[in-house]
Amino acid sequence: MLSFGAKHIYLRALEAEDLSFLECIENDEKLWHLSNTQTPFSNDILKNYLDNRHRDIFDVKQLRLVICKNNDNHRVGFIDIYDFSPRHKRAGLGIVIEESFRGQGFAKEAINAVLKYGFEHLDLHQFFAYIELDNLDSIKLFESCEFVKTGEQKDWNFHHGQFHTQAIYQNIRDVH
């Protein structure tokens, strides 16, 4: 269990009992464009994913953590470290909060906890995130966690009948 200074949440590893929550989030069509998903995940695929949850981040280059509320242990979302590169000391960061828990500060606490974990325990130099320019809530969130926009990919994603430009945000640890 990780808290790294978070007051209202903690992060924990995936457990077998997270299957229904994982299925609910992964099969929410409103979120598919964020992960390039085009079809629902079957129960078997998600069970297999959970069966492999014990694999080390240095082996699979990713880590998904469950975001839970401190006061009642209720799951509110997931935070993912992906494209982990120990050699280049960087990783991608993605987060999803269940709709009913958005806007309550859980995402910011989770991101800051993962930043601290990544910089202190994984020896990372930076995290990056890809955010579409029309996703103003995510831009505000990541900027509040000291991510800086460093570039754009024009017409990068196509969904809902149109192209969307994606920004690259980075949080680079100051090593001085």
Describe the structure.
With 176 residues, the protein is an alpha+beta fold. The chain has a single domain, classed as Aminopeptidase (3-Layer(aba) Sandwich). The protein contains 6 helices and 7 strands, in the order βααααβββαβαββ. Strands 1-2-3-4-5-7-6 form a 7-stranded mixed β-sheet. It is globular and about 40 Å long. It starts with 8 loop residues before the first strand and ends with a strand.
* N-to-C order of helices and strands: EHHHHEEEHEHEE
Poorly predicted runs: none
Number of strands: 7
CATH top level label: Alpha Beta
So, CATH architecture? 3-Layer(aba) Sandwich
How much helix, percentage-wise, in residues? 25-40%
Helix-strand category: alpha+beta
From the spread of the alpha carbons, the general shape counts as globular
Rounded Rg:
16 Å
What value does the average pLDDT take?
Answer: 86
Descriptive tags:
alpha+beta; 7 strands; 176 residues; Aminopeptidase; 7-stranded mixed β-sheet; 6 helices
Helix-strand blueprint:
Layout: E1 9-13, H1 19-26, H2 32-35, H3 43-51, H4 57-60, E2 63-69, E3 75-85, E4 90-97, H5 106-121, E5 126-132, H6 136-144, E6 148-159, E7 162-172
Structure described in brief:
The protein is α+β, with helices and mostly antiparallel strands. The protein contains six helices and seven strands. 22% of the residues are buried.
